[in-house]
Design a protein that fits this description.
The complex is a heterodimer.
Chain A lengths: L25 H5 L2 E8 L1 H7 L16 E8 L5 E5 L8 H13 L6 E5 L16 H28 L6 E4 L2 E4 L4 E4 H5 L3 E6 L23 H5 L15 E5 L8 E6 L1 H4 L4 E6 L2 E6 L5 H6 L2 E5 L9 H7 L14 E9 L11 E7 L2 E6 L4 H12 L6 E4 L14 H13 L3 E4 L2 H7 L6 E9 L5 E9 L15 E6 L13 H21 L3 H8 L3 H14 L10 E10 L2 E12 L2 E12 L6 H21 L4 E2 L2 E2 L17 E6 L18 H13 L5 E2 L5
Parallel strand pairs in A: 1-8, 3-4, 9-18, 14-28, 16-17, 20-21, 24-27
Antiparallel strand pairs in A: 1-2, 2-3, 5-6, 6-7, 9-12, 10-13, 11-12, 14-19, 15-16, 15-18, 19-20, 22-23, 23-24, 25-26
Helix pairs in contact in A: 3-4, 10-11, 13-17, 16-17
Chain B lengths: L1 E4 L2 E4 L8 H8 L18 E4 L2 E4 L12 E3 L12 H8 L9 H14 L5 H7 L10 H15 L5
Parallel strand pairs in B: 1-5
Antiparallel strand pairs in B: 1-2, 3-4, 3-5
The chains are: A alpha/beta, B alpha+beta.
């Protein structure tokens, strides 16, 4: 279904051990009633995990993999269990819509249990825009099977013809007798478990009544009243507060530490274990003083600075590109750079850890609860069935909360304190000790005929990743390669990380080649686009934008782009104004097609949000670093998009009910930087080839 | 030290120099008010002091003595949402929701001062609040809707 490459930096090591609750114990855990379990086949698992699911498995026998399960209790309560987590991308609602669609109940009647390693099936992580293309269809299948089981039970109960039965509004109705039975009544006294495989039949998207339609978030009320509990809001009985004592630079090793001062402070437990130093305090008011009372000597090493970054990435590349001669009437050649940026989730990482009888429970906002469980088990040398990770509401992640260092730190402090500990990273820690979107260098050489046909395309990416590496245009003579480099900073996943870099370079270069060939940029793209889905989004964006109209004021510029990643096709047109070297984006029209739309209004919200976030990477955001220190780890020094940066954002949705749904959390973000760079060139004649785009 | 929070008087144990944010969250368990940056840059910690929005992460608790402190928890009355809360739901002006409390409190403060704000007023009034999910267009729409629904009278 999805022939795209997973984001390189999302391919973390697979857990060594997978704990799947024994099915014999199943009803002991969740109570009687009716349960449907979806068993994945090997190919579905490979798809879900981006092809890396079996890495390290070495052909050993794996337990049967369960993708999701659904339970209807004797009380009638409907509970869905999935290892996916909600980070603001709205899947708590959209997945409930999928189940509601098949079960013919209101989504508000469905409880979603998400990202709890004890209760939910294993999941590789909420990454790579995979929830909608993979998890949503699975839940459609599970819920459809449950519906059929309920109809079977009712047919038995009434000794009725199954064809005369229907389900409406959570009730099974016998049309002949007009009797009804609730789900709870039907499941009373039952312990029915059914296992289904991914080929089960579901309602086609063209017939959806709940899925595919607008629906407000199921937890919206608790958010607007402040009742929603994020990890950082939790409080357990006897809970202490933690703080890690850190070195002033990366790659530091601890020479010596003195915790005596902190030990003497009442209510303070200092911890010194290897290179780890921290304090747990019975009152959060004591954290600053307790951390300051821990004295430490660190040794560090000289490290690469941000001004040397791009040269360093090129000079440390694993291999050099093999350039081929360029054919065609017109040639173009350029190098593009992409800075490290920080995810800057508004909630810095947080974790609450509790040890009880050798078992560890950690609440933390992570996109990979099962991955964090593995990290915890390894850190403390215990088996994974002794570790439970739960994901409360999370102040988003954008790919930045895959790893579990905050969880491990909280658990280490809690172990020493003998009491639960909450650790909330400061903003400065979040922007220093997490990881960054990879920086990169991309070199492109290309050629085109006089009529605008691209004859040759060579594209080499250093360090920023392989997703969306190949051009979606019709270029038979194409070389596109990724080259790994030494990254001076710790790097990892980010919303559309590599696709953003590759689209910035490719679509900037498309503009350069078009202008070199003397062909109008939109016509140039049409000329070389043979994929009808790509053409459709370009048409949708340029038409809404009224591309081709004359500029009507000083400093105005128009720019466009098109592209494809993670199952989504995107095209954007930008209008901006340059005044005294300052860029003001006035309007962005973005067209997007991701197959059958699941929730149109939320899709618009995701696209507009991704576009807003993309403005940061396009115009302002860059991590500045020197000798192992981040120089701008604060919002006063690291500019993120604000209300004043908000352009008019016009989203054009292309709905393809005949195609499987793809995710949309990531791809819209790739559109901003290239369209803006092209518009800046249009306005000023200056070609900016480095993100963030700065006019000199 | 006593503080009047959401209409109720509380005897506060914390040092009066502690931030109002820490007192609200850690001593009074009012966790709707969020920590985002600790330097007044993100607005997630916004509360109202005598009706005016302030950054509780930069406000020493003692500076709030003798004033009416209102947090997000005070807005809904008898189960009825405040018009700004209602509008945030209707406009779907949130994604992860972590900035939402601060956004709503800043919006309420803005509407108290300017019951019928223009879009430019809304943007400048909320300039100090960051939504990292980028729902700004929806938030502007929500504040507009709330202004209309309150008909010039925001409580």
């Amino acid at each position: 279904m999805n022939g795209f490459e997973a984001e390189r930096y999302e391919l973390h090591a697979t857990p060594t051990y997978r704990f799947v609750p024994d099915r014999r114990d199943f009803f002991k855990v969740i109570g009687g009633g009716l349960a449907v379990l979806l068993v994945l086949d090997a190919s579905a698992d490979a798809q879900e995990s981006g092809g890396a699911g079996r890495r390290g498995g070495g052909g050993q026998a794996m337990p049967q993999e369960i993708g999701a399960w659904l339970h209807i209790a004797e009380s009638g309560a409907i509970t869905v269990y999935t290892g996916k987590v909600e980070m603001g991308q709205n899947i708590r609602t959209s997945l409930a819509q999928a189940v509601a669609e098949e079960l013919h109940v209101s989504p508000s009647k469905i409880t979603m249990v998400m990202g709890d390693t004890m209760l939910t099936p294993f999941d590789i992580g909420t990454v790579g825009s995979m929830t909608t293309p993979v998890m949503a269809p699975q839940l459609h299948k599970v819920a459809a099977a449950a519906r059929e089981m309920l109809l079977d039970l009712a047919a038995q109960e009434w000794k009725a013809d199954r064809a005369s039965l229907s389900i409406e509004d959570g009730l099974v109705r016998n049309k002949a007798s007009n009797k009804t039975l609730s789900f709870g009544e039907l499941t009373k006294g039952q312990k029915l478990a059914k296992t289904i495989t991914p080929d089960a039949r579901v309602t086609p998207a063209s017939e959806w009544k709940v899925a595919g339609h607008d629906m407000r978030k199921v937890n919206a009320r608790s958010i607007v009243t402040g009742e929603e509990k994020y990890t950082s809001d939790m409080k357990l009985p006897g809970m202490m507060f933690g703080r890690v004592v850190r070195p002033s630079a990366f790659k530091s090793s601890l020479i010596s530490a003195d915790t005596k001062g902190a030990e003497q402070m009442p209510g303070v437990v200092p911890v010194h274990d290897g290179d780890f130093l921290g304090v747990a305090c019975d009152d959060s008011a004591k954290l600053d003083a307790a951390a300051a009372a821990v004295k430490a000597d660190w040794k560090t090493v000289p490290q690469t600075n941000s001004r040397e970054l791009y040269g360093h990435l090129k000079s440390t590349a694993a291999n050099a590109p093999a350039w081929q001669p360029i054919e065609g009437d017109t040639h173009a050649e350029a190098t593009y750079n992409v800075a490290y940026i920080a995810h800057t989730p508004l909630e810095p990482r947080a974790a609450v850890a509790q040890w009880e009888n050798g078992k560890l429970t950690v609440w933390t906002g992570t996109q990979r609860p099962f991955g964090v469980r593995t990290e915890l088990a390894q850190a403390f040398g215990i088996s994974e069935d002794k570790v439970r990770v739960l994901v409360p509401a999370t102040g988003s992640g954008y790919g930045g909360k895959h790893t579990g260092e905050c969880a491990v730190e909280a658990a280490r402090l809690a172990k020493a304190a003998g009491r639960p500990v909450k650790l909330q990273w400061t903003r400065e820690e979040e922007m220093t000790w997490a990881y960054f979107r990879p920086a990169g260098v991309i070199e492109v050489r290309s050629g085109a005929r006089r009529d605008g046909t691209i004859t040759n395309w060579q594209f080499h990416n250093y360090n920023s990743g392989g997703a969306a590496l190949r051009s979606p245009y019709n270029i038979p003579n194409q070389i596109a390669e990724f080259h790994g480099s030494d990254s001076p900073l710790r790097q990892g996943s980010y919303r559309g990380l590599a696709a953003s870099a590759n689209h910035f370079a490719r679509e900037s270069h498309m503009d350069e080649l078009a202008r070199a060939a003397g062909v109008e940029p939109a016509a140039f793209r049409f000329k070389n686009a043979s994929d009808p889905r790509l053409r459709a989004v370009i048409e949708a964006a340029t038409e809404r934008f009224r591309w081709g109209r004359a500029e009507d004021r000083a400093g105005q510029g128009f720019g466009m782009m098109a592209g494809f990643d993670k199952g989504g096709y995107v095209s954007a047109c930008v209008e901006l104004t340059v005044t005294n070297g300052a860029v003001r984006i006035d309007r962005i029209v973005q067209s997007f097609e991701c197959g059958a739309i699941v929730n149109p209004d939320e899709l618009r919200n995701q696209i507009a949000g991704g576009t807003m976030m993309g403005i940061g990477g396009a115009l302002f955001e860059a991590v500045d670093f020197e000798n192992g220190r981040i120089l701008n780890p604060r919002l006063s020094k690291y500019r993120v998009p604000r209300f004043s940066d908000m352009p008019e954002i016009d989203v054009v949705l292309v709905d393809r009910k005949d195609l499987p749904s793809a995710g949309a959390g990531e791809t819209p973000i790739v559109a901003v930087a290239p369209a803006v760079a092209n518009a800046i060139f249009d306005a000023t004649g200056q070609r900016l080839r480095s993100m963030p785009l700065k006019l000199s | 030290m006593d503080l009047v929070v959401n209409g109720a008087r509380h005897r506060i144990q914390s040092d009066p120099d502690r931030t109002l944010l820490a007192v609200l969250r850690d001593e009074l368990d009012l966790t709707g008010t969020k920590y985002g940056c600790g330097e007044g840059q993100c607005g997630a910690c916004t509360v109202l002091l005598d009706g005016a929005p302030v950054r509780s992460c930069l406000t020493p608790a003692k500076a709030a003595q003798g004033k009416q402190i209102a947090t997000i928890e005070s807005l809904a009355q008898n189960g009825h949402l405040h018009p700004v809360q209602q509008a945030f739901i209707e406009a779907d002006a949130l994604q992860c929701g972590y900035c939402t409390s601060g956004m709503i409190m800043s919006s309420v403060g803005l509407l108290k001062k300017k019951p019928n704000p223009s879009d430019a007023d809304i943007k400048s009034g909320l300039q100090g609040n960051v939504c990292r999910c980028g729902t700004y267009p929806r938030i502007v729409q929500a504040v507009r809707m709330a202004a209309k629904a309150s008909n010039g009278r925001v409580a």
